[in-house]
Amino acid sequence: HSVFFDTAIKAPESWYLALLGFAEHFRTSSPPKIRLCVHCLQAVFQFKPPQRVEARTHLQLGSVLYHHTKNSELARSHLEKAIPQFEDVKFEAASLLSELYCQQNLVDSAKPLLRKAIQISQQTPYWHCRLLFQLAQLHTLEKDLVSACDLLGVGAEYARVVGSEYTRYCNLALLLMERKLGEVHPLLTLCGTIVENWQGNPIQKESLRVFFLVLQVTHYLDAGQVKSVKPCLKQLQQCIQTISTLHDDEILPSNPADLFHWLPKEHMCVLVYLVTVMHSMQAGYLEKAQKYTDKALMQLEKLKMLDSSPILSTFQVILLEHIIMCRLVTGHKATALQEISQVCQLCQQSPRLFTNHAAQLHTLLGLYCISVNCMDNAEAQFTAALRLTTHQELWAFIVTNLASVYIREGNRHQELYSLLERINPDHNFPVRRFLRETLKMSNAEDLNRLTACSLVLLGHIFYVLGNHRESNNMVVPAMQLASKIPDMSVQLWSSALLKDLNKALGNTIDAHEAAQMHQNFSQQLLQDHIAACSLPEHNLISWTDGPPPGQFQAQNGPTTSLASLL
Questions:
Q1: Compositionally biased, Polar residues: which spans (predicted)?
Q2: pLDDT of 558
Q3: What is the pTM of this model?
Q4: Do the Cβ atoms of 130 and 144 come closer than 8 Å?
Q5: For the residues 285-302, what does the mean pLDDT come to?
């Protein structure tokens, strides 16, 4: 130790490089030794270094503390000290500090900071493009799409002037996101052709392809076009395999503006897993959704050891939101509840994450409450979710599920009619015709869960009307499809109908087999119901306001009978 400091006094550059080397070694250790990394960087100040070195060290400390610790106040202090300094430091510090402000829900502090940095960065192409992109993202999150589009337009024009086609395309791609659904598909196809014909850096070209394909896939999924999206999704999966084999340092761009990346390569891999999970869930391939969720979460766990970028936590929450819904469908309520608790924990660590996902969290709890037949709690959760969202599709999803709560309770006719009026003012329609239309649309786009639910409901209607043959024609394929998904509720419903149908048709052996199936499904559901309601996390069903609770009291046991559950 003493020899190191003696050497440091004689050769200032050597001691600085040595401390940086040690800091980087500790940061990249497995697992990272962040405390020792911070100590090494703090030691730089003991030598009263030149101003440029001091500013760079404040930036490095702020970055390490922001990315690897929960000490956001100390990170903020170091970054704020770095900002008034030299150009090569101030823009990176401003970018990081604005991220930190957003994470703390201090958006009004982030915006002026970014605007000021944008004004003075016009001679630094990389940072000017990145800061414009960052501010546009911030406006998008706030639903201020006009300001976001203006900034993206400025970014695209600036990139054109400085000769960066890659960065220009990135900005134009984001502009497409703000277009109406019907306008997007032809524009994305056109842009995809432009990217294919672009003769640029191979990594940048593949990066752009991933960007456009992700946009294409998500727009198809937004429209419920699960079958139509398959060619694009396959291209995207092939593209991410190609980009993962390329090395970033093989060809460095000569234009500084081209150094801009819309997303790091490792993050792209997780994003592709995520859109694959979204597709699998919509299509009703729930085992496939589970497989890709496991892969994505494993990748995220590795990345978060060295990188606490907020987008990784966002990816993690969205993945969990999807797999929770899959668990509820497949009859794994206890696991779903534990994963809801994980989302709560992630949201506790980030006020911004909670703000963006509070409505979804209450919606998931509402779905869980329905699955364990706690209808009063389900209504309270959906009401809380409605209070917290302005998103049109999420609002419709919540209201539809709230309507199902009123139907299950049986005595809420007035509230139900009011909700139906809000969903569809002209709701006096013939139910069977609309069910057949639903069946036709779901079949056309391979929406397996929707098909299974439509078939079993039509089968039930025909059974009540006494048309047993037609009912059987609906229920048998519903059961086959539900087993393939697998959808426990539809299997339970279908087996109950098959038991009664076969009994009515005089098929004694088939009726016995269906009764046995129904018994098996009932037992599985009951055991899972008991396990879920016995978890301390079950108390989450009572939380409807404020941040998510951190501690849970143990339960005495389930209070709902199997009869009411079924």
A1: 552-566
A2: 44
A3: 0.81
A4: no
A5: 93
